Amino acid sequence: xxxxxxxxxxxxxxxxxxxxxxxxxxxxxxxxxxxxxxxxxxxxxxxxxxxxxxxxxxxxxxxxxxxxxxxxxxxxxxxxxxxxxxxxxxxxxxxxxxxxxxxxxxxxxxxxxxxxxxxxxxxxxxxxxxxxxxxxxxxxxxxxxxxxxxxxxxxxxxxxxxxxxxxxxxxxxxxxxxxxxxxxxxxxxxxxxxxxxxxxxxxxxxxxxxxxxxxxxxxxxxxxxxxxxxxxxxxxxxxxxxxxxxxxxxxxxxxxxxxxxxxxxxxxxxxxxxxxxxxxxxxxxxxxxxxxxxxxxxxxxxxxxxxxxxxxxxxxxxxxxxxxxxxxxxxxxxxxxxxxxxx
Amino acid sequence: xxxxxxxxxxxxxxxxxxxxxxxxxxxxxxxxxxxxxxxxxxxxxxxxxxxxxxxxxxxxxxxxxxxxxxxxxxxxxxxxxxxxxxxxxxxxxxxxxxxxxxxxxxxxxxxxxxxxxxxxxxxxxxxxxxxxxxxxxxxxxxxxxxxxxxxxxxxxxxxxxxxxxxxxxxxxxxxxxxxxxxxxxxxxxxxxxxxxxxxxxxxxxxxxxxxxxxxxxxxxxxxxxxxxxxxxxxxxxxxxxxxxxxxxxxxxxxxxxxxxxxxxxxxxxxxxxxxxxxxxxxxxxxxxxxxxxxxxxxxxxxxxxxxxxxxxxxxxxxxxxxxxxxxxxxxxxxxxxxxxxxx
Lengths: 343, 343
Prior knowledge:
Two copies of one chain form a homodimer. Chain A is of the alpha/beta class.
């Protein structure tokens, strides 16, 4: 870490008071960048993900072109179901498709949990290569999908407005659900530790669909597995949990060994600070659609957001992934506004 | 009202303490009922909506077959954009499509706001006919979409995961957005008052997409128009507001002239009571997917929900519309569990 020229992200996670917060954007390596779209036209999704040189190139694009304070490795949360033996198809613009979903105990037993590091060696290679290419410019972030969110895809087979098939599976066969969630958790822990060894300076766990769960069901199907991951991985690398839509869990999650919590834009900074008792680094939570507003308005609202969160224990980010239709200069205005804060 | 044999809904709205709460289900007249599906195979969507005899028949189905304590008129929130002159297509299983979206000031100026009662006479006729057919068995609920949610469809033209086009319109042309929201509000007030005159005992305003807005933007683009509607319509009939996903606004909305607030399942009863200072009737908030659980579990969780909300100022309901794949006996188990509460 000492070799990092810009370690704002890590200092924010440690709770240091900074003159301005670090900034990165979820999905910053992606569809709003013309250079990414060029690569997308040449290589299919899994070629981009599984070729370390391509993943590295894509990961560096927003560092070079938008000026973010951290790189996040270009990959996908569905590499875990894939490494566990499930077929995952990714059609451009259509979202993921898992043709053979988990239905039975035998399906769960058949999921592979061994040799995770070998199966996902391409991610670790991409991290190591990117770390080298970054040469200490900014920290490198690794990530994984949360067990609940991966269960959603493994049962449902695709995106859904309600994930009611996944929920039906849990509500009618909870013992099978726990077994599946535990298997995903075990694999994820090995995976995130390997990411740390390969050079990740922080890892983020994306629980993109946790907000589908009631507070009571979140405590059953999401929280215990997030806690296990945070406990197991935190000794190796700081862990940030992003339970999208689960504002109700912020208090509980602030008491785990996680170093950071991601917030969507439904929570005010004031409420998030109160719920977490000022005890954990918060990350977020600019409405991604607000990047479609005029630049002066973006800058004004970024300033208000930082005023409200403060510059201690805070990482500026969006409240969800950047939208494909955001002009690059609007993304840059967001990043610049954070960097210019207080000056 | 005095002629109602079952006036539990109205007594709950007035704040009376009951031995058990009234129960109905959002989308109770719909796709999970075999008799509805039969009508759907014979008549297209707008024929069902615009033919009072059909709308009445569909409205009565859950009263007769599931035993709910209130009927809600079979209709759609998009009848308002339609009455304002926009083309609305409804393809079965595909969601709504508005081919000619609002883009400019001229588009807004061209929207019709006169003769609302005449244009939507079929809704008022359906209400009057249903009221007659109900013969006082249970109260009749009318409804409309909230201005923000209707703006979403009028700008975006269809459903969306993010409604970013609608938000971009608001963030880049706020004055046009306010003009459009006000026009929708004016029409909605006339429409809901006409529903009251035609026999609705309560009207509900569905802000299905308000949760897409940050708390600050909710106060700009949603709340003022909900407040106007509640203020204007409440003298005629009790108004329930359902701002899905906007748990953060419960405190503010509890101080309006609305008689009730709908809740989705992300809010615990305890928190909702605290945020609203026990001052308003709350309605909800069973996870619709939980109706896919085994019946004993449904009944257990319904009991826990009523224990938590209490039997004063509470209307049992789902936290969103009933899912098409819910077995009818599970829907009935939900309703029965409420009716058996405390016995």
